Amino acid sequence: MRVFWVILVSLFFGEILDAQVRALVGTYLGDNQRNFYGDRAPSKLRVKWKTNLGSGKTMFGIGDVRHWKGAGWTGQPLVIQEGGELFLVQGTLSHHLKKIRARDGKVVWSTSVGDVIKGTPTFMDVGGPEESRYVLIVGSRSGYGQHWRNGTAYSLHGISYLTGKILWRHNSAATVSNSRDCDASAVVLGRKAAIPLENGFFTLFSPDVRQARSTGGIPELRVKKQYRLFRETDRKLYGSELATESSPTMVGGKAYVAAGVGRVYACGFGMFGGASEKLDIGGDLNGSMPLTNDRHLLLGVEKQFIAGQGGVVKFSTSGKVKWFYPLPNRKWYTWEGGVVGSPAVNHRYRSGVSRDLACFVGVDGNLTLVNHQKLEPGKVNWGPKRQRQFPAPKVLDVVKLPQGSISTPLFLGDKIIVGYDNGMDLYQVTPEGKMVRLDRLSGPMFDATPVVWGGRVYAGSKNGYLYCLGD
Length: 471
Fold this sequence. Notes:
Layout: H1 2-18, E1 21-25, E2 46-52, E3 55-60, E4 64-69, E5 78-82, E6 85-91, E7 96-101, E8 107-112, E9 122-125, H2 130-133, E10 134-139, E11 154-160, E12 166-171, E13 187-189, E14 192-196, E15 201-205, E16 223-228, H3 235-238, E17 249-251, E18 254-258, E19 263-268, E20 275-280, E21 296-301, E22 311-316, E23 321-326, E24 329-332, E25 335-337, E26 344-345, E27 357-361, E28 366-382, E29 389-400, E30 410-412, E31 415-420, E32 423-429, E33 435-442, E34 451-453, E35 456-460, E36 465-470
């Protein structure tokens, strides 16, 4: 009889555990360190299924209406385990956030936020009633049909993971910045979250709807603190291009943010928090910064606003530069060279290669592999501003892709997955540090960052579809 009750209790609690909702990849590039890309990569990029994500209109300035499809920069799916099932959460250029069953691409719910979603949500368990417990913090463009300065700009939203209901929203204030969008993904620290808005302010808040302000309609987010991520003097060089688009990286209780005005800020969460400048490297900083295994940050620099070249810089949290790697100047769409996406590191995975590796892809289409802990003896490179020279990293291999890219590669041990304007490549890194291509999918434009789980690659394309790829 005692054995019977033990089995019954075990089954009961097993069912409770099975019903739990758990984020496996819960924000852009995995977690607050921006260096986790999923569990294991496949060896092929064969299409298993694809799901239409729809299309939507968005405005640039006054009267310039553009029609976009699918998913774009940065646009990475989240991977959520719910009971025994895996689900994806995908932002789309059709204005909708979608919950999608991972095994077959079936859309569970689809919620419009009123404009294009370019970035990646952040999942957060805030406790409380089930419907509002699991919150998806979602940024978007500022609102289709609204005047970019005089209208409202509901560009930050809280959405229930379970139902798709909009729990709260935030009207991003008009500032001297020319944007009120939100491309970034939030970081989470305890019961608080924080995100940089493109109006130039790092914003600290609680995502719990019970702390939102009642309006009679959709509740308004109650902001706790905001810190400005630009100087007034920046307007001389940058004009009104003062937006911060990158997602913060948490190190030691502080959020490190690559601001669009060429500087990295460290933002505190506590009572005496604030935004302090750590690195002034110049350029247009768009990508997010992965934390390395020696507690440094890797930052992509785009060519705009600087005398020198864009590329990748490795620096400590105190702002000391360890190395800089320049990429060739190349005019491509609106970019002039360097890196728009984020570098990737491989130390969170075991494989037959060093765990000190990093890779990054430039707008010129060069995929570069380096050992980020080693330097090229006697070699230096001029920095982006051409005011100082810095050591050069140990370059292991460079591969030329068919097209340029603003996408962020994934680096899972000895496998690299990289999207570009007319396809996606899968590489294996040899113990000698060479990249050997295993497979190529040609055709779709992959601006968005993929994610990997269970040997499957999930990637949104600007051709309108979300792809599931694998062996």
